[in-house]
Write a structure and sequence with these properties.
Helices cover 33% and strands 11% of the residues. The protein has 89 residues and is of the alpha+beta class. It folds into 2 domains: 1-30; 32-89, no CATH class. The model is unreliable at 16-23 (pLDDT under 50).
Length: 89
């Protein structure tokens, strides 16, 4: 019986954590934007615009116009970046 109660309690804690995490991610997405051209090598948020890599942290040089990071809305252009990906060549 103790295992059952422990399992139920653990499931409740996990469900609460997942719900809180989803809510935090949903809120942060509303206040963030992609900013191209300001990511430092190894510090990009996801895949490059030109397909040179497909993962977070794979930027090979600073300020590549194809790599991006999430920043607070309105901060991108102030930081010298662009909110749109460069045109494909």
């Amino acid at each position: 019986m103790n295992k059952t109660l422990l399992s139920i309690a653990l499931a409740g804690v996990l469900a609460t954590g997942v719900a809180m995490s989803a809510n935090a991610n949903e809120h942060s997405a509303d206040s963030k934007e992609k900013c191209y051209g300001i990511a430092k090598a190894g510090k990009n948020s996801c895949a490059s615009a030109n397909g040179s890599h497909s993962c977070q942290g794979h930027a090979t040089k600073d300020n590549d116009p194809n790599d991006w990071v999430f920043v607070d809305k309105g901060a991108c252009e102030k930081d010298g970046g662009k909110t749109t990906a460069p045109a494909a060549h």
